[in-house]
Amino acid sequence: MEIRADAETSSYSSLFAALSYGIASMAMVFINKAVLMQYAHSMTLLTLQQLVTTLLIHIGRNMGYTRARGVDMATAKQLLPVSFFYNANVAFALASLKGVNIPMYIAIKRLTPLAVLIAGCFLGKGRPSTQVTLSVILTAAGVLIAALGDFSFDLFGYSMAFISVFFQTMYLVLVEKSGAENGLSSVEIMFYNSFLSVPFLMFLIIATGEFPNSLSVLFAKSYSFSFLVILILSLVMGIVLNYTMFLCTIVNSALTTTIVGVLKGVGSTTLGFVLLGGVQVHALNVTGLVINTAGGVWYSFAKYQQKKSKTVKLVTDVEAHRK
Question: Domain range for residue 221?
């Protein structure tokens, strides 16, 4: 009975983490797109998000609102690759949003499970089931068909999105490994990630010449109340998204996080056709997006069934052992 109660509590925690990440992730795509339609300096936006996250967690720790531990240089060194891949993922994702409409952006990002599975094979996690393999193939085919019907095709935007998929895969795998091995909480990993990101991002926006012009444009834009609202939303949601993503990956797994990303994409794709514009509807494009979404839902169902059967088997084996 105790085992079943623990399993139920764990299920509720897993569900909460997954739902929180899904909602935050869906909102963040539209908020970032809205900001970038008025403010094209994506690297400066990312730097501001990371800087605000670092300062808020630091202040929260000093005021006793969080139990996150202070900076440990050995841990920081170990988490440096996580920070690098995270920032590379977000930087390329933001760059792609400047040229790719939201439905196609989400369709391309649905290729992340394929990349995670391939990475898992190389890391010795074994081969996926037939259902998982077929669903991933269907998802990839949908992207190809949708791209052929995308009249607003932007080579730079597509390239940035595909590179973002690679970095997101590496990032998710490393977060899962780091959270499990180091016993760090989601807030602590988020703090290390932001803390380690700021110097690198500051150097990058200066080296590329984006700064200080981007700051001047930001101050000029801040007189617009509507822009100021979405900018603040972007900074706040950046923190929420980071926290829920780390939480979902630690409580569940990197694969679960990608599944949630696929499922929330169903709603985001639908809303993407009517919100913020930039989408030219074509039969081939819509067909590809439907196939891509169907593949994503099938993939998520297959992984859920797989995880459910493993949980039932584990509980049964433990109870049998106790008898």
Answer: 1-64+71-321
